[in-house]
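Re: Re: ligand-bound prediction request (bumping)

Still looking for help on this. To restate: I need the protein modeled with 2-acetamido-2-deoxy-beta-D-glucopyranose bound, output as structure tokens. Inputs repeated here so nobody has to scroll up.
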Amino acid sequence: MFPKSALLALAFGATAYGQLVGTYQTETHPRLPFQRCTTGGGCTTVSQGQVVLDSNWRWTHVSNGYTNCYTGNAWNATACPNARTCASNCAVDGADYSATYGITVSGNALTLKFVTTNTNGKNVGSRVYLMSSDTQYEMFKLLNQEFTFDVDVSNLPCGLNGALYFSEMEADGGMSRFSSNRAGAKYGTGYCDSQCPKDIKWINGEANVEGWQPSETDPNGGSGSFGTCCNEMDIWEANSISTAYTPHPCTVTGQYRCSGAECNTPTERYNGVCDPDGCDFNSYRMGNTEFYGPGKVIDTAKKMTVVTQFISTDGTTNGQLKEIRRIYVQDGRVVQNSKVNIPGMSSDYDSITEDFCRDQKTAFGDTNSFAAKGGINGMASGIKNGMVLALSIWDDHHAHMLWLDSTYPVDSTAPGAARGTCPTTGGDPEDVEANHPDASVTYSNIKVGDIGSTFSSTGSGGGGSPPTTTTSAPGAAQTKWGQCGGQGYSGPTACVSGSTCVVLNDWYSQCQ
Ligand SMILES: *[C@@H]1O[C@H](CO)[C@@H](O)[C@H](O)[C@H]1NC(C)=O
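Reply:
Sorry for the wait, this slipped through. Here it is.
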């Protein structure tokens, strides 16, 4: 997630933030069922699935009254003379998900509306986390697994980002590690990501009040002297024009409070503990400009199923992460990710691997901070330890989302600069919020499970039938995890030794 730090736009009339628990509004998490799948056993619904709003968006007030602890851009100096006193004086309250924040659930579908006008003013954007109980985030361990969801991006224009990603947060939001945090996961505390965001009001159970500077462009945002860092796996950052998936490793394990240069400051972007750029696969940027967008191969005018596979070196959870693959399903078609079409890079690449990342950084002349922070193996530690699923909608005060959907740097014609067809003059939050307040994203049908267990040619709707193993045919051999069969497929049907061709559905067989 490129410059996420300063951009969780929160334009919310008289809002404040805190770490005790307030009682003016009962906290009721909207239920969002999801599914766990195995190749042998089909899919089981986790009916206790629910989402919780991040604490940064919540009203926080002195614990014994209605007085705000933070208003506009400023902390209340009486309630919050310092980090610890503030934490003991201030309470974070429950959320009215739909009326205040535009967050609604229908069945297994979650919709996040961009701008919601409410009695306090207006709310811009939101970020929620998936839980399977009232007090704990669901922890996803994705090695040798795949993660699948449906998404509708048709109502996400240029400059917006509907993001679905994993961060290595603590399951209880840090409540047991930091005694001053009384709110925990139930109130959406404990956020971290690879940008080491400093706009987070509460970190490690304390207010981020020290050195707090108001944002120059966001009337309700600011940043303190601490940031909160952790491994981040961006499954999906997208609007109707462009999409990217991007691992961002860190040299720290779990959530870590940074200060100074550790936080990837603007002047020392690559000196922090995390990789701010990541190794991104954006089909447009990788040279296939006809793959994703309105009316394109993956048609963003319609709902689609997005599959992301975390392939391990030995096909078990004991191995190391070696590849992150993307598959789409739309209108009954299983579509493999686009191939790379960039001078200096192999046209066989269609997924994220250590080699892909190295060659991409070289071809684009980008700093290889991905490798410097541990590369694929660095990401693997988060994938193995367990990560929290975040779902959000946001606009970008820092770089206007041009890094996702336009040309960035804006005047560059160098390889890698073109990322989508949006105008370089667009994406200013002021314009996007004024012109597209009703934009929204809908995520649905979330599934996690064994490779090949979460989708079929009908999308992720059914559990899919258990795969069957076929005998390898003679001839050229497909690499392990490559495609080896399926309707409309004409490549090699034999697999390299050590793997066999497994029929996942009518449209796709894979060497496993
Ligand atoms: C700051 O908090 C104190 C009580 O802690 C309150 O009396 C005062 O009105 C607050 N100021 C603002 C600007 O909200």
